[in-house]
Amino acid sequence: RHVIRLRGIRKLYQMGQQQVAALDGIDLDIDKGEFAALMGPSGSGKSTLMNILGCLDRPTFGSYELEGREVAHLSDDELAVMRNRHIGFVFQNFNLLSRISSVDNVALPLIYAGVGARERRERAMHFLEAVGLADRAEHMPNELSGGQRQRVAIARALVNEPEIIMADEPTGNLDTKSTKEIMEIFQKMHGKGRTIILVTHEPEIAVCANRQLLVRDGVITRDEGRGVVLDVV
Ligand code: ADP
Ligand code: ADP
After folding, report:
1. Per residue in 176-202, pLDDT tens?
2. Which of 107, 152, 159, 224 minimizes the number of CB atoms within 10 Å of its CB?
3. Residue limits of the ABC transporter domain (predicted)?
4. Whole-number Å distance between alpha carbons of 119 and 108
5. Distance in Å, CA 43 to ligand 1 centroid
């Protein structure tokens, strides 16, 4: 069953007198448990598409159903609730708060969800353990390597137990060894049934997914599913 369904999605930007179509007719279904890699050259529309999928922005035309609900029918507040409940975000630059510890960074989404302090800490610790960083709970982000910071950020994305993880170039700032560790975590999440959408420039990363989507000039020009055997831990 699909968690995401896009039909005829267009996103237009006004550039002076001209209208530019950043997305020019996207039809896409993503099923529960799929691991999709989104590829394409700079300026092809990947960020625009991710912003719409992540409910950070709305399409100009077309239908987006997230978990069976038409996003166009939701108010901005309802959209924010959908985003917080259903989607965990991972960024290229980690986006951790530098003045609080790893465990407090991981627990942040739970503050917004109204979870009490003790349970926040327990749940944050659980997900720090899941990414292999329980022993770094009290470290500040600047005391961690890039790969460790991204693992903290992944734990933060998971802590609300969202249905969908969206990651924009999550290994873009990491060395080969850390990249491998991060991709193993994504594969493990996929093995546990999470739906993952990942933007990457690198084919070696894209093959870790079970589906490869190519975006060009605002449309999806290739959609390949590959029977990659995942090394599920
Ligand atoms: P990438 O996703 O490749 O890192 P960006 O998303 O930062 O790149 O930008 C892609 C293109 O979109 C760039 O050519 C940039 O100039 C253009 N762009 C981004 N935001 C705006 C904007 N607000 N107005 C006009 N052009 C924009
Ligand atoms: P990518 O992430 O693949 O690099 P983007 O989604 O950032 O591509 O951009 C797709 C197209 O939309 C580009 O031509 C870009 O210049 C344009 N664009 C993106 N954001 C804006 C914006 N806010 N205003 C005007 N044009 C934009």
Report:
1. 999 999 999 999 999 999 999 999 999
2. 224
3. 4-232
4. 12
5. 7
